[in-house]
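so i finally got all the pieces together for this one. its four components total, 362 residues if u count the protein bits. some of the lines might not be protein, just check the labels. i wanna see the whole assembly predicted at once instead of chain by chain like last time, that was a mess tbh
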Amino acid sequence: MRQTDFVILGLLSESPLTGYQIKKVITARFSFFWHESFGQLYPALKSLKQRALIEEVNLESLQNHAQITYRITADGTEALKQWLHEPPEHERMRLGILLKMYFSGLVPDAVTLAHLKRFQEDHEKDLNTLKQYQKELQGIIMQHANHARVLQVIDFGIQTNKTYLQWCKETIALLKEGEIR
Amino acid sequence: MRQTDFVILGLLSESPLTGYQIKKVITARFSFFWHESFGQLYPALKSLKQRALIEEVNLESLQNHAQITYRITADGTEALKQWLHEPPEHERMRLGILLKMYFSGLVPDAVTLAHLKRFQEDHEKDLNTLKQYQKELQGIIMQHANHARVLQVIDFGIQTNKTYLQWCKETIALLKEGEIR
DNA sequence: CGGCGCATGTAACTTGTTACATGATTCC
DNA sequence: GGAATCATGTAACAAGTTACATGCGCCG
């Protein structure tokens, strides 16, 4: 069982979805802490189905063309719970911006400054997306069983993005002032 | 050229090192934003040497047994600079703790609480390590050309770890109060 | 002389990405 | 009819991990 399997099980534990929809949810809502590619997703769905942890749903031919909706099985729910019990591993990150910052003495400051501005823009966007999502969720308070947990996850994203932006602002200022030689 | 190649070039741009020493530096100093395994490192060194971006140093048989020290070549420095010019990609993270938090409605709160405490401990350690390193660097101010940049990278680690810990504290409190059902 | 840390390396495996192929539906 | 989006999937490749094999040097 790989990590991909468990995101799928997790999302299907909330409602039946197609592979494409799973990808969309991960991209739209998880992107600040998770990602999956189709090349991982579809084979994983296939394998989960083979092991009967998920199954196909046939919505009385309400379905269009080739679209396949999956739902989680009892065994799947068990597997998911078991995984939730295991402590997550200490995450091993790779932040290219920091690596380039570390060695940035070898290139003109303007280069690094451009990278930092890019980083800043990216995370401003992320922050706005998260705030938007938070607002939506707060509007429909208590409709979803998992509501408060999701808000807490979003809050992690908001806080870390704010921290990134604050650091970015300071670092850009230092570079501009020539404090860093 | 993969990312591993550039960390190696970067570190060798500061001083000649053995593969083992490179690994040690990455583990000791970069762990909060980078990681490498021996299985990546040694083949990468081999390939960099073949392409003449690094070369072996022979310190007049001062060296012990099988140890191989490498230094960067002019071509290697060029390649490194070129890479430093390219904008880093938007990092794609996988934070297991958030995934488990998101789906934590399926397991008892005690389970999630334990994960959060583990996360907290891990990042308290990381924060202390970073503060220690910061202190050391501030003590020998200006000895190293890259000094201020390194301090800025460390600051990123300190700020983000503080944010993680703050979030953790709040989330643990919420869970304990039963605010999250 | 045993264990630990230093030191290098490989092979098998798992994981993940990218590019491609295919085709339906919707909207203009 | 063309473009965008929906939708599924595979194959080739790249990246990364783990376990293993080997052996030196130092310290107690």
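The first strand of chain A starts at residue 17 and ends at 18.
Chain A has a mean pLDDT of 93.
anyway lmk what u think
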